[in-house]
Amino acid sequence: MAGIYIHIPFCRKMCHYCNFHRALVDENINVLLKSLVKEIELRKNYLGHDFVETIYFGGGTPSILEISEINLIISTIRNNFKTDDNPEITLEANPDDLGREYLQKLIENTLINRLSIGIQSFYDEDLKLLNRRHNSVQAKESVAYAQEAGFSNISIDLIYGLPGMTADRWKSNLKQAFKLNVQHISAYHLTFEPGTEFYRLLNEGVLSQLSDNESLKQFELLIELAQKNKFIHYEISNFAKDEYYSIHNTNYWKQKKYLGIGPSAHSYNYISRQWNIADNNKYIEGVNNSRPYTEKETLDATMKYNDYILTSLRTMWGTDLSYIESSFGAKYSAHIAGKSKKFLDGSNLTEDRNILKLTEKGKFISDYIISELMFP
Ligand code: SF4
Asked: Any idea which fold 2-251 has?
C-alpha cells in the first residue's frame, strides 16, 4: 500500500507563520497544473506494484482548485497507478473557500472523501495576527456547511502557543472545536520558522515566544480535553474520534512508500528519499523539458533507523524493538536498549511485548527522548 501527495503551491494570501513552499496565485497555475499531470505520468512506475491507498491534496491551498482540475488530477492518478477501489482522498481547504456551492460540487462530482480544514483559531484576533484570510464566523460555518453537504470525515487544524495566547483562550478554542462534531483534530504548537514574517518580528522584539511553562500548560489542556471528548491521541499532534485516523499520514509514520508530486514534494520508496525543487518555474521547466527537478538521497541503515524512531515513537503504536533487531541489526538494538533505560526508569517510556511507547509524562518531552534514542 502506498500514498500519493499532490502539492498545490498557491495561496491567496501569505500567512505570517508559514514556511511551506507556496506563491501568490497567478495565471501560472494553469501551466503548473499541466505539469503536475505530466509528472504523475512520468513517475507512474515509482510505486512499483503497490496499490495507492491514499491521495492527499496539500499545499499551499488546494481548495483554490476548480472541480474539473481536481478531477483531472485524480483521474490521471487512477489511469497511471493501481488504485484502491475506495482510496482515502483528502483535500486541504481554507475555510473561506468552503462555500455551500463548492462543497456540494466537491461531494457530488469528485472522489474527495476527507477534508482537512485550516481553521487555526476561532478568535478573530488570532486569525488577524496569523494573517489568515478567514474570520471566526467563516471558521465555524465551513465545518457546518461541509457536514450539511454530507462530508463525514472532517479534520480541522488548530495552532496553540501563539504570542499572547492565554491558557483560557486556548481552552475556549478547544471547547469550540470539540463542539463542532468533527472526526479529527490536528493541533500544532507555533514555531518561528526562519524566513517567515513571525521570525522577523520575533527578532525585532515585536513578538515574543510563550514561556515553556505556558506552552506545556496548553499542551496539557489539549490532551485533557481530547480525552474528555473521547478523541484518541494517536500521534503527538493528532487526535481522532472513532478511529478516524488520517490513513495518509499514518502511512508516513508506518514507513510505507509515498510519491510526492509538485514543487517541493517529497517521495520515499524504502531505498531513498527524493524531493522536488521548491521553485515553481524551475519545476515546470524541469518536468516539461526533461531537465532534473528532483534531488535524491540514498538511505543508509542509520538514516533508516533514525527515521523509524522519529516517526514511530510519536504514535500510539510505538517503536517495535523486534523490528529494529530484524531490520537494522544488533548495533541499533543495543543502542536503543542502552539509551531507553533512563526513560523507562523515569516512567517516560513503557515497554510491553517489545514495543516501546511514550507515557503521558513522556509526551511532554517527546522531542528530547527521540533525539536521545537516535543514532549519532
Ligand atoms: S498556512 Fe496555508 S494558507 Fe497560509 S500561506 Fe501557508 S500554505 Fe498558504
From this structure: TIM Barrel (3.20.20)
pLDDT at 158: 98
% the chain with pLDDT above 90 = 99
191 Cα to the center of ligand 1, angstroms: 14
Phi/psi-derived region of residue 338, left when phi > 0, alpha when psi is between -120 and 50, beta in every other case: alpha
User: Which atom in ligand 1 lies closest to the alpha carbon of residue 131?
Assistant: 4
Is there an atom of ligand 1 within 6 Å of 60 CB?
yes
CA 265 – CA 59 distance, rounded (Å): 10
pTM over 0.90: yes
22 lines ligand 1 (CB under 6 A): yes
Q: What distance in angstroms lies between residue 328's CA and the mean position of ligand 1's atoms?
A: 38
How far are the Cα atoms of 19, 59, 252, 294 from residue 279, in angstroms, in the given order? Answer: 13, 13, 24, 11
- How far apart are alpha carbons 373 and 360 in whole angstroms? 18
For the chain, the structural domain boundaries read 2-251, 301-376
CATH fold for the domain made of 301-376: Arc Repressor Mutant, subunit A (1.10.10)
Cβ neighbours around 58 below 10 Å, total:
20
Distance, CA 319 to ligand 1 centroid (Å)?
32
CA gap 6, 264 in Å, rounded: 10
257 pLDDT exceeds 90?
yes
